[in-house]
Amino acid sequence: MYQIKINGMPFSVPEGSTILEAARFAGIKIPTLCFLKDLNEIGACRVCVVEVKGARSLVAACVHPVNEGMEIFTNTPRVIESRKTTLQLLLSVHDRKCLSCVRNGTCELQQLCAELGVDIDDKLDGEKPASVPDTSTAHLVRNNAKCVLCRRCVAACERQHVAVIGANNRGFDTQIGCAFNLPLAEVSCVSCGQCIVSCPTGALVERDQTAELLAAINDPEKYVVVQTAPSIRATLGECFDMPVGTNVKGKMVAALRRLGVDKVFDTDFGADLTIMEEAHEFIHRVKTGGVLPMITSCSPGWVKFCEHYFPDLLPNVSTCKSPQQMTGAMLKTWYAEKNGIDPKNIVSVSIMPCTAKKFEIDREDQDAAGDGIQDVDIVLTTREIGRLLKQCNIDFVHLPDEEFDPAMGISTGAGAIFGATGGVMEAALRTAADTIFGAPLENIEYHEVRGTQDYKEATYNFDGLEVKVAVVSGLENANTLLEKVRAGESDCQFIEIMCCPGGCVNGGGQPTQPAEVRNFTDLKALRAKALYEEDENLPFRKSHESPIIKQVYEEYLQAPGSHIAHQILHTTFVKRSKTVQL
Amino acid sequence: MQKRISTLPFQGTKEQQEQLFKVIDENGGKNGSVMPILQKAQEIYGYLPIEVQTMIAEKMDVPLEEIYGVSTFYSLFALTPKGKYNVSVCMGTACYVKGAADVLGKICEVLGIQPEECTQDGKFSITECRCIGACGLAPVMTVNDDVYGRVSVSEVEDILSKYE
Ligand code: SF4
Ligand code: SF4
Ligand code: SF4
Ligand code: FES
Ligand code: FES
């Protein structure tokens, strides 16, 4: 421990702390802008400056370590003036239209200005760098007129081993973008949205589809069905200032109903279906000498990454559609037929933690009902549905708990844990084990694959059959493992890959949390906990025990891996290139 | 100003590519550093278009954006080719005061291109430069090694016509 003084008060703080951490320890939240712990530690923006006795210039608290006897001052006039000037300079080239900005109220720049009393309409008004918003992709919009060049998005994209965005040109002309100013749609972006959740301002936002949903609801011809992904119940509360990790399943369903949609279903149903098909596919591959290791396919950002960066490993990827697409496919085939609804009149909407899902719905071979009728028509992120519910004046926090609609609203604990890294693997093992043993097993928790570590590995013995599995999340970790697979150095048979670090609970469509929270809380773990608790409390915890899953196989799909199951629930992939096609 | 990006078709040859790959190998290949390789690449091709940067990115296994970021950060790198005749206008203080901007504007108008661009036929390119030490002759323009002093807007067409 070091003995230091902050604003004259003595504290003992752990060695190796930064000034930012030490001050936090003392109950002082030094403001930051560019700093994201373990991700973007570049000390560039100078918002976090403090005075240190004996140091001539102000130091950046986010990266500067404390040492024995250090005397730190966090609120001298010099510090405050410096922070204000920094913000004023940022504002002088900023498109300061807060009222119409999607981040109004959640913007870190705005928050800093409010805290420091910097007038957003300050007199400093210079020439602004010219920029044109990039609207080329299905999943996001970049508007550099709101960018503060903190480079948090760049670091996030690098961490995903994609690195298609960076700072180009210099000085006043610096802009974040792609090589040769190419539109994002023309480079190997995987649509993960990690750049968006890292951005402190309105420079990066998902492509907003809330108006499309409202239009569908108000069209009497349309039968609007919403499904919500497993992780949404663990995060949507954050949009309404509820504590991180609150499970708001009941309120979420109630809120969607009050928007006026016709049915509210659970993507967990599709997750259960995915497990039926995936576990069957895995056993089939093992028994028939098929391509191994088999890799899960529920994360469309990961699938796109594989297509761009490891096209040679596409035969390893399970042919199963994602839970979103399976739910949508069953909606427009089985459910439509059963209820005498023309699938053309169904608007299939999903609420997702993920921006890559916006890309996924337009992929080839995602139209089980034929005629180019998409399995899913509209994807809203958690953030978008949060905004829409507010816009529609729904009193979320005070709503009663309601249940999903029957049919595709019944699900199992196996489906629930899909939202956390390791969840798909655990769910698949529960079903695969019972299938291989031919009897229901008592012990169904696979703790080795849980948790937010980068890489998890375990070996299980199922009736004499050794199965080695691995679980990774975040594409940098995926890349490391896949290099091994490619080189023939991995002896795993089954791999779960989630595009986003920590899985869907930390997806690119989840509510943004300011750096102040991100840097000092394990969001992934808190949100995942809500899902594992839900699993424990559900009557059915194995996908194949779900009554609705039994029913759809009896009535419609026959058996996992059947011809019709393949037509409706499986898909194909395409090879893409890592570099620009000239 | 942001660096201009070439819109002219790429004319690289097999020999140039071999030279480039040799340079990358000699400079550490995958683990090499980008700066010296970009410098050599510019010597080989005269500029760094997307085709050249893509070759470097693939061969070094680094993201294209990283290479592009470096190439736009340092002023010594050009993303557009020089023409057979490079017309350069001094933008130093003395020349500027004596109307260099008008001269430059006229040159752009006559050639139909902007600074840092090259004409479709590859003949002319335009650059702006800093003081070349001939302030007494301000405003100054050069065409390759030929220096023209006290240039007036009305003389521009005549000067350029010598290089048809
Ligand atoms: S990015 Fe922030 S500061 Fe800028 S307009 Fe939007 S809300 Fe206001
Ligand atoms: S969506 Fe993902 S891959 Fe695309 S730019 Fe953002 S971080 Fe990079
Ligand atoms: S887009 Fe957002 S995250 Fe990226 S540099 Fe600009 S402000 Fe920072
Ligand atoms: S320099 Fe510390 S937050 Fe940016
Ligand atoms: S300013 Fe042009 S030559 Fe010196």
Can you describe what's shown?
The complex is a heterodimer of chains A (582) and B (164). By secondary structure, chain A is an alpha/beta fold. Chain A has 3 domains: 74 residues, Ubiquitin-like (UB roll), CATH 3.10.20; 69 residues, 2-Layer Sandwich (Alpha-Beta Plaits), CATH 3.30.70.20; 359 residues, 3-Layer(aba) Sandwich (Rossmann fold). In chain A, 34% of the residues lie in helices and 13% in strands. Chain A has a 5-stranded mixed β-sheet, with helices on both faces. In chain A, helix 9 crosses helix 11 and helix 9 packs across helix 15. The longest helix of chain A has 22 residues. The radius of gyration of chain A is 25 Å and the shape is globular. Chain A starts with a strand and ends in a 13-residue tail after the last helix. The mean pLDDT of chain A is 93. With 164 residues, chain B is α+β, with helices and mostly antiparallel strands. Chain B has 2 domains: 60 residues; 77 residues, 3-Layer(aba) Sandwich (Glutaredoxin), CATH 3.40.30.10. In chain B, 42% of the residues lie in helices and 11% in strands. Chain B has 7 helices and 4 strands, in the order ααααβααβββα. Chain B has a 4-stranded mixed β-sheet with strand order 2-1-3-4, with helices on one face. The longest helix of chain B has 13 residues. Chain B starts with 13 loop residues before the first helix and ends with a helix. Classes of the chains: A alpha/beta (582), B alpha+beta (164). Chains A and B meet through strand 7 of A and helix 3 and helix 4 of B. The complex binds iron/sulfur cluster (SF4) (3 copies) and FE2/S2 (inorganic) cluster (FES) (2 copies). The site of one FE2/S2 (inorganic) cluster has 12 residues of chain A, from loops.
